[in-house]
Amino acid sequence: MKKYIFIIIAVAPFFVKAQSPARDYTNAVLWQQTSGEYKALCFQAYNFARLSLKESLWADTSRKPNCVIVDIDETVLDNSPFQGHEIKKGLSYNPTDWTAWTNLALADTVPGAFAFLKFAASKNIETFYLSNRDEKDYSATLKNLQKFGFPFADDAHLLVSKGTSNKEPRRQKIAETHNILLLCGDNLSDFSNVFYRENKNTAAQVNSNQTLFGTKYILLPNPMYGDWEKPLYQGEKLSDKDKSKQRLERLKSY
């Protein structure tokens, strides 16, 4: 009589469960939260900002009051804890969670931001905080900035989104009354519409404006999100899974 041995392999559910697409961002968030390189790049950006501001003042002939324009998120305030929260929930971004986070007013400062803006204030240079946060986030945003003592953190200098993410009209409004010496941001759209909003080749526009980076335009590192990611995706109403698949497909390899 022949004996047969049957081997049954049981696969636990957690072995076959697909990884959450939100996990794609784990390294980016950890890099911002823990690496010395992130802090060094922020200090480097604001050191260049200080040098450029001094040179701009020497060459200044404007009769308007001088100012700098800064974005808020990932430029003066660090929101990586929110991004970490979303990843642990298996999400990339949820607007309700974002409002809950901003209402806490717990975002820490980006390295070098406060010292630079205090230096600017010591030279009688105003700061305008130009953000695409919604109006419902206004009070909490102001509270967060004032908690650290950021200069010019008041109603006259905080400009949030009012139905549009296009910052150009708000920049032009500031330029009517002030001489803009430099702009700080983590996204090219924080500087000019030529990079993403005018259907131009962004890489070519960066090359064309290369002398402005580190002088007029001060770019902060942000590996977590930004306009750079939008051109990666083809199609409408894409799920996080769809976007994750397209990100993988867009990788250069050999």
Automatic annotation (TrEMBL):
Annotated signal sequence range: 1-18
CDD domains: HAD_CAP
Cited InterPro entries: Acid_phosphat_B-like, HAD-like_sf, HAD_sf, Lipo_e_P4
UniProt keyword annotations, A-Z: Signal
Cited PANTHER family: ACID PHOSPHATASE-LIKE PROTEIN
Official protein name in the record: 5'-nucleotidase
Source organism per UniProt: Pedobacter mendelii
